[in-house]
Amino acid sequence: MKYTPGIVKENVNISKESPVYEFFILLSGLLLIILGLYFILGFAINIIVPEISPELENILGKNLINRFEMPENSGKRNKSLQDFADNLQKKCINLEYNFILHIVESSQINAIALPGGHIVVFSELIDTIDSENELAFVLFHEMGHFANRDHLKGIGRSIVFIAITSLLLGSDNQLVNLMTQGIQLGENKFSREQEIAADEFALRSLNCFYGNTAGAADFFNKLADNEKPSGFIGKYYLTHPESKNRAAHLENYSNAQGFKTQGRLIPVPENIKQEHD
């Protein structure tokens, strides 16, 4: 008698559902777990960050600042920028930081706030600005990130996400990359809100220092000339608001606060604009 194996209709290892359907259920569940942990720990970071000691911040800052290459023979130029920042802080900023300025040779038009009071200013940014007022606004903006402790919150949230996804899925996983892109959209919104808050802090400080906010929007108006419209979808991928929108917001905010928007624009000090040996 020939043996003919039968089809097993019920078995714990055989699902009645489509494998594709089960994959999406598994993927959705995993994503919900990661998102839940991410937002819970992200919320915890907002509580923990204000408690981070200056000593720990200094350690973090030293490790990060060493990643930048400082141009040679920039000592006098760097000192002039440092003196200018010290004067801004002395007159209008009440923060428990001793800001340390660093000029980094780079074609990027940017500045960065790092833990421990470090402010990195890229050389191309200094070459782009046309007035001391613009430079003051940029430095006040970076100091605004310290006022809100954005520099620590951003680092902390990134570390949390990388740690969770690597723990659950491994560090080299395409699914991690897919989820990273999705969550990054939420982080971009968070980043844009931080930028607006820092802009408003800078505007109030600029008004304190000069008695007006002249020059604040000039920097963004110049950047806007070289920016392409991001479109309805593209704006959600931006970590910073569009420059034309930032300039418009600064003007509206100045008017709402009753600040004078017109005033004398002071040339950038030559010892900052031009490098000296």
Automatic annotation (TrEMBL):
The keyword Plastid does not apply. Pfam families: Peptidase_M48. It comes from the Bacteria. Keywords: Hydrolase, Membrane, Metal-binding, Metalloprotease, Protease, Transmembrane, Transmembrane helix, Zinc. Binds 1 zinc ion per subunit. Its cofactor is Zn(2+). GO terms for molecular function: metal ion binding; metalloendopeptidase activity. Residues 99-252 form the Peptidase M48 domain. GO terms for cellular component: membrane. The chain crosses the membrane at residues 23-49. GO terms for biological process: proteolysis involved in protein catabolic process. PANTHER family: METALLOENDOPEPTIDASE OMA1, METALLOENDOPEPTIDASE OMA1, MITOCHONDRIAL. Belongs to the peptidase M48 family. This is Peptidase, M48 family. The lineage of its organism: Bacteria, Pseudomonadati, Thermodesulfobacteriota, Desulfobacteria, Desulfobacterales.
